[in-house]
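Pilot study result, target chain (221 residues):
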Amino acid sequence: MALNLIMLGPPGAGKGTQAERFARERGLPKISTGDILREAVQTETEIGLRVKSLMDRGELVGDDVVIGIVNERLKRDDVRPGFVLDGFPRTVPQAEALDGMMAKRDPLIIVDIVVPEAELLRRLLIRMVCQQCGRPTVGVDGRDDASERCKRCGGQLVQRSDDNKAVVLERLKIYLRQTKPLVDYYRARPTFRSVDGSQPPEAVAADLVAAIKSAGNGLAA
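Predicted structure:
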């Protein structure tokens, strides 16, 4: 049975980090619409030019664009053993479209990473990303430092353009208004689980594995 996992959670919950770790350990592709879109912006593709201003303001890209990206990605052969979706779906229409894409595939497992709003704000304001590979990390004392380098590739760490306080607050508002209803959409499914994301990363990772195993056992039953 393929392991098809959705990671839900607000900006700053750590779902990207946890998704990357879990996917790497299980040998599954991690599909991040955010990474795909940021790459498109950096390389100034047609879609990148369309979405750059929206991303800089912390607004969500239209459902049609994101659904098209994911639909194309899920047609590749490397997703046959399963996949880890990070950043999709973000709206109920996207979730409904994903259900259509999953016809005749193994069921989705959904894990929601829950973190209090005050902690989310703190994390987002000190978060930095590598200019070279895009890996997120936490800066020293919450500010970028010229001496800081990415532990993965050695690239320069900088603050994301959408991680200033005004944009962060707007992103959290958008999440509450448009994305949090996904929890209600998925909650009744036997494969839905929640994990406390305010714990240290290692504890979150352990709880995530346990939650996925529990959900998988539910499918087998």
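One observation from the pilot: The chain has one domain: 3-115+168-220. A full batch analysis is planned for the follow-on phase.
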